[in-house]
């Protein structure tokens, strides 16, 4: 029995067994990414679409996703590649790409405004080894490495990416342990630790998807913004008020297809509250 060390689940795996994320497998007594280099989606996107509003705005980035995720969000916008049964059964046979090929593709798109590669769409940290290896080559080529993540990973995994990933957009999906545990089947504590460490070595922007009746209270937003503002840099100086926060509108998706979209007025009210503590608050999806 071997335990995976990527996230709080620490899935105990027998030889040949796949973890709950659907993307890591035990082979030869080691847990490795079954999804290493798998490509389910690829596009040249505006960097603002990730979203990044304060990292090289106006540029584009080659964005790619694999498959698998270690959360179970019932409102997932990419369930077909994240954790549906079809994804776990079909996507292991998806197209594969090497770090070298990805870097070559990114370089070939520089004349179209490309700044590097963004690991996104599904949860990239379930195959963090690919992010790490590709980022090394991207940096050697003078390109940037970006990542969009749920932040549900251990500090050991994050340290593997220190100095390699230039910018992260991290989902802070809510700010109560109940929401993380009972709705997402995740860990708020792990996400907070991840964010607090990430801001010490790379550009970080945060995103919250506001879902009616779940994470849309004024009190919760105030607590979240106060916590973000308290974040510290590597020297221990408080710097969190400069961390950008994206407050996005929810639209019915996946297992919540019958829900109502978020009232834009609620978003702007929450943005006002967050703005009492943070310098850069953006409302999106309206």
Q: What does this 3D model show about the protein?
A:
The mean pLDDT is 95. The protein has one domain: Alpha-Beta Barrel (TIM Barrel), CATH 3.20.20. The chain is globular. It is α/β, with parallel strands linked by helices and 286 residues long.
Q: Ranges with pLDDT <50 over ≥5 residues? A: none
CATH class categorisation: Alpha Beta
Q: What's the CATH architecture name?
A: Alpha-Beta Barrel
Provide the β-strand percentage band. Answer: 15-25%
The mean pLDDT is 95
N→C terminal distance: 48 Å
Radius of gyration: 18 Å
The largest β sheet comes out as: 8 strands, mixed
Shape: globular
Question: What is the element string, with H for helices and E for strands?
Answer: EEEEEEEHHEHEHEHEHHEHEHE
Please report the total strand number as a whole number: 14
Q: Walk across the major sheet and give the strand order.
A: 6-7-9-10-11-12-13-14
* CATH superfamily grouping: Aldolase class I
The share of residues in helices is 25-40%
Q: What's the number of helices? A: 9
CATH fold type: TIM Barrel
SSE class: alpha/beta
Number of domains: 1
């Amino acid at each position: 029995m071997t335990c995976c060390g990527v996230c709080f689940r620490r899935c105990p795996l027998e030889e040949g067994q796949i973890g709950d994320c659907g993307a890591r497998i035990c082979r030869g007594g080691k847990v490795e990414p079954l999804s290493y280099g798998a490509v389910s989606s690829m596009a040249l996107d505006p960097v603002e679409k990730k979203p990044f509003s304060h990292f090289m705005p106006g540029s584009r980035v080659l964005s790619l996703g694999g498959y698998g995720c270690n959360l179970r969000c019932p409102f997932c916008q990419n369930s077909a590649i994240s954790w549906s049964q079809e994804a776990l059964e079909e996507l292991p046979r998806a197209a594969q790409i090497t770090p070298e090929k990805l870097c070559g593709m990114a370089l070939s798109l520089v004349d179209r405004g490309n700044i590097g590669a963004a690991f996104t769409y599904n949860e990239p940290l379930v195959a963090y080894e690919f992010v790490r290896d590709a980022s090394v080559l991207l940096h050697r080529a003078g390109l940037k490495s970006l990542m969009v993540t749920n932040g549900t990973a251990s500090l050991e995994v994050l340290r593997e990416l220190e100095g390699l990933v230039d910018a992260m957009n991290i989902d802070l999906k809510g700010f109560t342990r109940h929401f993380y545990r009972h709705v997402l089947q995740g860990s708020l504590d792990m996400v907070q630790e991840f964010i607090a460490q990430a801001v010490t070595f790379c550009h970080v922007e945060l995103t919250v998807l506001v879902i009616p009746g779940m994470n849309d209270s004024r009190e919760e937003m105030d607590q979240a913004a106060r916590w973000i503002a308290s974040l510290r840099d590597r020297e221990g100086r408080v710097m969190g008020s400069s961390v950008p926060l994206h407050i996005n509108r929810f639209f019915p998706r996946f297992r919540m297809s019958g829900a109502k979209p978020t009232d834009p007025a609620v978003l702007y009210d929450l943005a006002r509250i967050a703005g009492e503590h943070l310098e850069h608050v953006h409302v999106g999806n309206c």
